[in-house]
Design a protein that fits this description.
Blueprint (H helix, E strand, L loop, with lengths): L6 H16 L5 H22 L2 H15 L5 H13 L8 H18 L4 H8 L1
Helix pairs in contact: 1-2, 3-4, 3-5
């Protein structure tokens, strides 16, 4: 087993340092900026820890919907083009399900304590 620190552990350690060592002594704008920086590092850490399965599921849903394969960026761009051209709209159940799943995945990283996310996961 390697004893090397992983990148996500390093990011987490910096966030803890900011919260536990810097924030208690900071005031005003510096306290606010420190809180923002620590929260940004938390977001980066959650993104780094997001399982590869989430990315694979995103691409699989899009491949099934679009009938094409490719990178996430390619498939997202293709989906946008098809929505813009009117091929897909809100009446397409597979599109709505994909967008709902993608929003939930994004909220898990961006706002994991968001009340609507908790309700969606409970449903």
């Amino acid at each position: 087993m390697s004893s090397a620190i992983t990148p996500d552990q390093l990011v987490e350690a910096v966030a803890v340092f900011l919260r536990e060592r810097v924030l208690p002594t900071a005031e005003g704008d510096l306290a606010f900026d420190t809180r923002v920086a620590a929260n940004a590092l938390d977001l980066v850490c959650r993104a780094m820890r997001q399982p590869a399965a989430v990315e694979a599921a995103h691409c699989a849903r899009l491949s099934a919907l679009l009938g094409e394969s490719g990178t996430r960026d390619h498939l997202d761009a293709l989906l946008c083009d098809r929505i813009q051209s009117g091929v897909f709209d809100e009446t397409c159940d597979a599109l709505v399900e994909h967008l709902r799943a993608a929003a939930i995945d994004a909220l898990r990283v961006d706002q994991p304590r968001y009340s609507a996310l908790r309700r969606a996961l409970e449903a």
